[in-house]
UniProtKB/TrEMBL annotation:
<dbReference type="InterPro" id="IPR007627">
    <property type="entry name" value="RNA_pol_sigma70_r2"/>
</dbReference>
<protein>
    <submittedName>
        <fullName>RNA polymerase sigma factor</fullName>
    </submittedName>
</protein>
<dbReference type="Pfam" id="PF08281">
    <property type="entry name" value="Sigma70_r4_2"/>
</dbReference>
<comment type="similarity">
    <text>Belongs to the sigma-70 factor family. ECF subfamily.</text>
</comment>
<feature type="domain" description="RNA polymerase sigma factor 70 region 4 type 2">
    <location>
        <begin position="134"/>
        <end position="185"/>
    </location>
</feature>
<feature type="domain" description="RNA polymerase sigma-70 region 2">
    <location>
        <begin position="47"/>
        <end position="103"/>
    </location>
</feature>
<dbReference type="InterPro" id="IPR039425">
    <property type="entry name" value="RNA_pol_sigma-70-like"/>
</dbReference>
<dbReference type="InterPro" id="IPR013324">
    <property type="entry name" value="RNA_pol_sigma_r3/r4-like"/>
</dbReference>
<dbReference type="InterPro" id="IPR013325">
    <property type="entry name" value="RNA_pol_sigma_r2"/>
</dbReference>
<keyword id="KW-0804">Transcription</keyword>
<keyword id="KW-0731">Sigma factor</keyword>
<dbReference type="InterPro" id="IPR014284">
    <property type="entry name" value="RNA_pol_sigma-70_dom"/>
</dbReference>
<dbReference type="InterPro" id="IPR013249">
    <property type="entry name" value="RNA_pol_sigma70_r4_t2"/>
</dbReference>
<dbReference type="Pfam" id="PF04542">
    <property type="entry name" value="Sigma70_r2"/>
</dbReference>
<keyword id="KW-0805">Transcription regulation</keyword>
<dbReference type="InterPro" id="IPR036388">
    <property type="entry name" value="WH-like_DNA-bd_sf"/>
</dbReference>
Length: 196
């Protein structure tokens, strides 16, 4: 599990911090768990957005509940933890998709929630949302195998070995799928491509 954060032969800069925070969180340090969440959640949420779209927050929350519940079972370093968390999140996303096929769900909006002020600059948040949404929409056009490989390798920052464990495939297969997906995306991005 120790090499899950290597990316193109490099170790992610925050893997040591993540590994130390995971160890402290396993001892019951709530602040350390907050650090773990801060370091892992953005990549996990992007992965969920690509897999379950509008339900990403809910599925990610389910994944974090399982991660917190089973944290004491995890053995490994920061990079390994990223892969472990991505595997749990992917399983929750696949469970969600199976449930959706059985019974479609409708969601109503709470008017009060729509009126709450945001904690950040609205223009900046809108641009970030559009850029993220645009990128995820592009990735969603890929075949599922390529899309998941791109998400795990590029967005979540996992190497081929860790991404392979998440997807149940050989590392070379995942690297190939990610490469093909990225090449396909690059071919679709010409100078005339509309971007937000």
């Amino acid at each position: 599990m120790g090499d899950g954060g290597r990316r193109h032969g490099r170790i992610r800069a925050d893997d040591a911090e993540l590994g130390a925070a995971v160890a402290r969180a396993q001892e019951g340090d709530e602040r350390a768990f907050a650090v773990v969440y801060r370091l892992v959640h953005p990549g996990l949420l992007a992965q969920m957005r690509a897999l379950v779209a509008a339900e990403a927050e809910d599925v990610a929350s389910d994944a974090w509940l399982e991660i917190a519940r089973d944290l004491d079972r995890f053995r490994g370093d920061g990079a390994g933890f990223r892969g472990w968390a991505a595997t749990i999140a992917r399983h929750r996303a696949l469970d969600h998709l199976r449930r959706q096929k059985r019974r479609p769900r409708t969601v109503g909006l709470d008017q009060e929630a729509l009126e709450l002020p945001g904690g950040q600059d609205t223009a900046e948040a809108a641009l970030e949302f559009l850029s993220t949404r645009w990128a995820l929409q592009l990735i969603a056009t890929l075949p599922r195998e390529q899309a998941e490989a791109v998400l795990l390798r590029v967005v979540a920052g996992l190497d081929g070995v860790a991404a392979g464990r998440v997807l149940g495939k050989r590392p070379g297969s995942v690297r190939t799928s990610a490469h093909r997906g990225l090449r396909r995306l690059a071919q679709g991005l010409g100078p005339e491509t509309d971007r937000p």
